[in-house]
Amino acid sequence: MFVKNFLNKMKLHFIHEEEFMQSINYTYINYHKEVHETILYKLADLMKDKNLLNNLRQDYFINSIRQYLLKHIDEEDRQIGIFLKTIT
Questions:
Q1: List of residues 6+ apart from 49 with CB closer than 8 A
Q2: Is 2 in contact with 61 (CB distance < 8 Å)?
Q3: Tell me: the pLDDT tens digits for 16-42?
């Protein structure tokens, strides 16, 4: 249940982020959307493994994806901020 809720919250976050990128005409929006789709696909794939989900503790799940998400924020989302500085 936790993993499914987490996935739904990530989807909602990505929708809002993509709407924001569209509103500022972000140059690399298509690439960024592809990155989001890849992240969601990997998490959905994880959810398919019932044995893993049954044995997976919430803290382990969070720690397992933390580095991947931090990398995304550091490398991809930071570029949005850099882009904003060029248009303001």
A1: none
A2: yes
A3: 999 999 999 999 999 999 999 998 888
Domain boundaries, the chain: 7-87
Burial of 61 (0-12, 13-18, 19+ CB in 10 A): middle
Amino acid identity at 26: Y
What is the per-residue pLDDT across 44-86, written as a single tens digit (0 to 9) for each?
Answer: 877 676 666 666 666 666 776 777 788 888 989 999 999 999 9
C-alpha separations of 2 from 5, 6, 54, 59 in Å? 5, 6, 11, 11
Kindly tell me the burial class for residue 14, based on how many C-beta atoms sit within 10 Å of its own C-beta (0-12, 13-18, 19 or more).
middle
The most distant pair of C-alpha atoms in the chain lies apart, rounded to whole Å, by 50
